[in-house]
Design goal:
alpha/beta, 7-stranded mixed beta sheet, 215 residues
């Protein structure tokens, strides 16, 4: 069957087990890199005893995702990752970093991903979403995050990350890599519960504005 046939187009691509030999050293290297960063946070730990959040952060700040998830949250995090081959590598990588993956995007397996994330949230997982991923436009909040918040009736938590010294890749999102031993500021801002009477577009613009203020 051809790789791009209709029957296979929506199947999430996975990394064969024998390629994990390359992923493991990368995860170890990242852990060592993250350990050098001087992270300052607005709270010592997120209070998530009453239930999970829909966590929103920009795609260009994903480098800090595992550190923030493991250090500041008491509940596990389910992250939305593309169904593409690149996403397959991220699944393997994130698993080693302690983050559960739900496959899909706004362009591939969007409905299935939304259902899977809703199930994960109802089971007690936080949902981590980059609302401008996986391919942009950069720093434009798409509506999937709002749909998830309305379906689960869980509040959105804005995750702001500022790098004091970093390099930025020439990718669509200008992906940020904080320099070793540099300072990073992390801020959490919970938004009021989603008002179902508000349009998805209005809520998305509010999320977009707050994320840009803090990252």
């Amino acid at each position: 069957m051809a790789p791009d046939s209709p029957e296979t187009h929506d199947i999430p691509q996975v990394v064969p087990w024998y390629h994990w030999i390359w992923v493991f050293p990368c995860a170890l290297f990242l852990r060592l890199w993250l350990a050098t960063l001087r992270v300052r946070c607005s709270v010592p730990k997120v209070d998530d005893r009453e239930g999970p959040y829909i966590i929103a952060l920009w795609h260009d700040r994903l480098f800090l995702a595992s550190l923030v998830g493991n250090r500041f949250f008491g509940r596990p995090i389910a992250a939305l990752i593309s169904a593409s081959r690149d996403g397959g590598w991220l699944v393997a990588f994130f698993k080693l970093m302690g983050i559960h993956a739900v496959r899909g995007s706004s362009s591939r397996r969007g409905t299935e991903a939304l259902i899977a994330l809703t199930k994960a949230v109802r089971q007690g997982h936080h949902a981590g979403i980059t609302p401008d991923g996986p391919k942009g436009p950069r720093r434009v909040c798409k509506l999937g995050l709002v749909s998830l918040a309305k379906l689960t009736a869980r509040p959105i938590l804005i995750l702001g990350i500022r790098f004091h010294r970093a390099i930025y890749l020439k990718s669509w999102d200008r992906f940020g890599l904080p320099l070793p031993f540099s300072k990073v500021e992390v801020t959490f801002v919970p938004l009021p519960p989603v008002d179902r009477r508000q349009s998805d577009e209005t809520i998305a613009r509010e999320v977009e504005q707050k994320l840009n203020e803090l990252s």
